[in-house]
Amino acid sequence: MTDKNWPLYEVFIRSKSGLSHRHAGSVHAADDQMALDHARDVYTRRSEGVSIWVVRSSEIVASDPEDSSALFEPAADKIYRHPTFYEIPDGVENL
Amino acid sequence: MTKNETLIAYLLRLGDNALVLGQRLTEIVASGPELEEELANANLALDYLGQARMFYSYAGELEGKGRGEDDFAFLRDEQEYQNFLIVEQPNGHFGDTIARQVLFDMFYGLQLEALMACSDERLAQIAAKSAKEIRYHLRHGGQWLVRLGDGTEESHRRITKSVHELWRYTGEMLSGDEVDHAMKKEWNGPNLERLKGEWLKEVASILEKATIPLPDEQWMADGGKKGHHTEHFGFMIAEMQFMQRTYPGASW
């Protein structure tokens, strides 16, 4: 036996057909197939899902919190990107 | 034995197998090797307990003597249980548990699939529901069997020993007695000859994948269907029935 820990997988569950998969949590598993089974056992016990995705956590490319000022702050003062910025002219029924 | 009695006897055996294996797996709740595997095991145990309840309640209704699931589970003596010897074998190490699961579930899955075509509608429905659960059990147990067999030198050695030591208890699952024959004749129950062929084929196939050599033909233990159990069984049901025997009729 090796003492290596099982790799971590992120679990995404689709609750109903037509909806998108949403992040539900994570599981440890010995391989991809087992990760699916563990996700099924841990996150769909109460009929939460109709489809499961698992992905190795190490495969996820994530943004660095240190970059957050460069990545996200510039959007803060661009209120014209929100639909609520615009007034709908009178007489327009559908926009 | 009337047609009705045959069905009752057969249902009780199905219930006994499910209950006893469910109880065994319940014994190792909270000692899984990993949190995820822990939950997987508890799920399996709950599936068996749920199945046992369905078989027992139906048997009780057919019997019409007012006995229900709890009477069958908690108030019968050792000799009245007719489960296979394999399901009462101790959990041992993780590999022993997995080997027991695969050898039994491989049979049980085939048995349930055959029962889906039996002439009793309610049993056919229970079988259809349970067969789905057992397909998942086999997927889980099968993956572990292959991983352990085809894993490290130590895991291979230990799982091979587990399979070979449990092999002697597989014979009685596959050889019919009067209840099995009557069930087949009167209720279009499983054809054990055919099941035996399919079981051997599937077990040989998964053992090959797991690089575990197929055990040689050997002496087979039996007696479970007659209520003759191995020495482990008495201790197991003593623990299982303790509460109901000490405080009869107690409820939550």
Structurally, how many domains make up the residues of chain B? 1
CATH class categorisation of chain A:
Alpha Beta
Main pleated-sheet profile of chain A: 3 strands, antiparallel
**How widely separated are the two ends of chain A?**
64 Å
Strand content of chain B: under 5%
**CATH domain fold name of chain B:** Ferritin
Give the name of the CATH superfamily of chain B: Ferritin, core subunit, four-helix bundle
Key features of this structure:
heterodimer; A: 95 residues; alpha+beta; Ubiquitin-like (UB roll); three-stranded antiparallel sheet; 3 strands; 18% helix; B: 252 residues; mainly alpha; Ferritin; 70% helix
Structure in words:
With about 100 residues, chain A is α+β, with helices and mostly antiparallel strands. Chain A has two helices and three strands. Chain A has a three-stranded antiparallel β-sheet with strand order 2-1-3. The model of chain A has no long low-confidence stretch (mean pLDDT about 90). Chain B has about 250 residues and is mainly alpha-helical. Chain B has helices at about 5-25, 35-65, 70-75, 85-90, 95-115, 120-150, 155-165, 170-175, 180-185, 190-210, 230-245. In chain B, α1 crosses α9 (about 180-185). The radius of gyration of chain B is 18 Å and the shape is globular. In chain B, about 40% of the residues are buried. The interface of A and B includes residues 27, 33 and 42 of A.
